[in-house]
């Protein structure tokens, strides 16, 4: 394999989640949490990524099937983290170099401290570098033990801690850089003499040190980086932190978010500068928003939607798998599903595209400059031509396209024609 290699441990059951879904697939801001870990490893410099699967392995394999640099190792029995890393050995036969080991249930891990560890490993030959964190509440983490000079001694898991050790605030969040093939020597010496009766990867650094090899622990991780998700409560905490990061990123990129506490933006969204997001807006899924747009308040943009530059989507408008071209506007109370809206088209209050007949979802096309009146219903599949006009309350039935520049009114909608006295009336 091309190095550096990253190993991501994702074989655990996650019983406290009380779910049929693999723990690492629970979503944080719209994405499975393991995808954040994969992205962080890749951004830190990993050239090859091995994901260790076990419980619900088919689910995890399917969720990452589109990642070209990810391969999988199977941990057939849950015998601990050391055994999980050992499952990667056949894939790494002949590989010599650094391997970054992470866990798949820490979605907030950032690439910067991981890149720092890989850089420090490259600068000096280490058998193991541990990324540690100093936290106010170390509950649940293994503690980092050092001697009086600050030199790393070992990791003690919480369940094996003495009262004095439990008070230590420097913790091990399971973030390592090991040198291969040296790590295999330590893993071959692991035993199960601990409270869980498992092979602890956390014993490997001490074993390497006892063999006279260089092991260093560096507190490079922030407390937010190491939040592990083991329950729905922690999942909510991770969502809140990730949402803050997402919004801060877009604000730094030139997007105005008027009320971040009452706005939700998915991790897959892309937003252009000088766009304004008003309160109580939800943007979920893969959504692209151009420059100089205005979204909200109380808008819902759903997966597959695209807003070109200068689009306005206002109060209580839902947009689903719909493309709005430059300058299009839907300011009030509309539903736009499976539609293509032309440039500068105007969608009136209460207008909807009826895209689902109970069996099939069909498309609506609204041409450039078209006007859709308040309360109009467009039953897909249907096309409204450029500069066409659909009167307020009209129902345009499926396959009854409106010609460019034509006006239709009524239920069902019919074209207007000019009578003998010069007045318009339905034809």
Short synopsis of the structure:
By secondary structure, the chain is α/β, with parallel strands linked by helices. It contains 8 helices and 39 strands. The chain folds into 2 domains: 5-226, Spore Coat Polysaccharide Biosynthesis Protein SpsA, Chain A (Alpha-Beta Complex); 255-426, UDP N-Acetylglucosamine Acyltransferase, domain 1, CATH 2.160.10.10.
Shape: elongated
Show unreliable segments: none
* Beta strands, count: 39
| Largest beta-sheet details | 11 strands, mixed
| Annotated CATH topology of the largest domain | Spore Coat Polysaccharide Biosynthesis Protein SpsA, Chain A
- Estimated radius of gyration: 28 Å
Helix content: 10-25%
- The CATH architecture designation of the largest domain is Alpha-Beta Complex
**Class derived from helix and strand content:** alpha/beta
N-C termini distance? 72 Å
CATH homolog superfamily of the largest domain: Spore Coat Polysaccharide Biosynthesis Protein SpsA, Chain A
Task: Determine the number of helices (DSSP H or I, runs of at least 4 residues).
Answer: 8
Q: What count of domains describes the coordinates?
A: 2
Mean pLDDT: 95
Strand order of the largest sheet: 14-17-20-23-26-29-32-35-37-38-39
Structural features, described:
It is a single chain. With 427 residues, this protein is α/β, with parallel strands linked by helices. The chain has an eleven-stranded mixed β-sheet with strand order 14-17-20-23-26-29-32-35-37-38-39, covered by helices on one side. Strands 5-4-1-6-12-7-13 form a seven-stranded mixed β-sheet. A seven-stranded parallel β-sheet has the order 16-19-22-25-28-31-34, with no helix packed on it. The protein has two domains: 5-226, Spore Coat Polysaccharide Biosynthesis Protein SpsA, Chain A, CATH 3.90.550; 255-426, UDP N-Acetylglucosamine Acyltransferase, domain 1 (3 Solenoid). Helix 1 (33-44) packs parallel to helix 4.
């Amino acid at each position: 394999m091309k190095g550096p290699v990253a190993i991501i441990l994702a074989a655990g059951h996650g019983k406290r989640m009380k779910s049929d879904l693999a723990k690492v697939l629970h979503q944080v801001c719209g994405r499975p949490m393991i995808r954040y870990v994969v992205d962080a490893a890749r951004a830190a410099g990993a050239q090859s990524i091995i994901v260790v699967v076990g419980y619900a392995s088919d689910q995890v394999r399917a969720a990452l099937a589109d990642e070209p640099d990810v391969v999988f190792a199977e941990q057939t029995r849950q015998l601990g983290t050391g055994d999980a890393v050992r499952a990667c050995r056949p894939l790494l036969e002949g590989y010599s170099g650094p391997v970054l080991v992470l866990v798949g249930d820490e979605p907030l891990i950032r690439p910067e401290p991981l890149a720092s560890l890989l850089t420090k490993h490259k600068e000096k030959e280490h058998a193991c570098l541990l990324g540690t964190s100093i936290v106010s509440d170390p509950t649940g983490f293994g503690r980092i033990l050092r001697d009086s000079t600050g030199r790393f001694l070992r990791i003690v898991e919480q369940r094996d801690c003495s009262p004095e050790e439990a008070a230590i605030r420097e913790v091990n969040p399971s973030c390592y850089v090991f040198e291969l093939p040296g790590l295999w020597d330590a893993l071959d010496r692991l035993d199960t003499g601990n409270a869980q009766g498992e092979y602890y990867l956390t014993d490997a650094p001490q074993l390497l040190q006892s063999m006279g090899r260089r092991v260093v622990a560096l507190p490079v991780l922030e407390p937010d980086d190491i939040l592990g998700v083991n329950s729905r409560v922690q999942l909510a905490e991770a969502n809140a932190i990730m949402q803050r990061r997402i919004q801060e990123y877009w604000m730094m990129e030139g997007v105005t978010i008027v009320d971040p506490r009452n706005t939700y933006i998915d991790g897959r969204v892309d937003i252009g500068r000088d766009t304004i997001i008003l309160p109580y807006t939800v943007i979920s899924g893969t959504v692209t928003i151009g420059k100089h747009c205005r979204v909200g308040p109380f808008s819902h943009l759903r997966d597959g939607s695209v807003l070109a530059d200068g689009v306005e989507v206002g109060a209580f408008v839902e947009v689903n798998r719909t493309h709005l071209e430059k300058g299009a506007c839907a300011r009030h109370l509309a539903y736009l599903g499976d539609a293509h809206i032309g440039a500068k088209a105007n969608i009136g209050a209460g207008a909807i595209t009826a895209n689902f007949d109970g069996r099939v979802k069909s498309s609506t096309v609204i041409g450039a400059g078209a006007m859709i009146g308040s309360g109009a219903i467009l039953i897909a599949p249907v096309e409204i031509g450029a500069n066409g006009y659909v009167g307020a309350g009209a129902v345009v039935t499926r396959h009854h396209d409106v010609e460019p520049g034509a006006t239709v009114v009524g239920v069902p909608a019919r074209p207007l024609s000019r009578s003998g006295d010069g007045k318009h009336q339905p034809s």
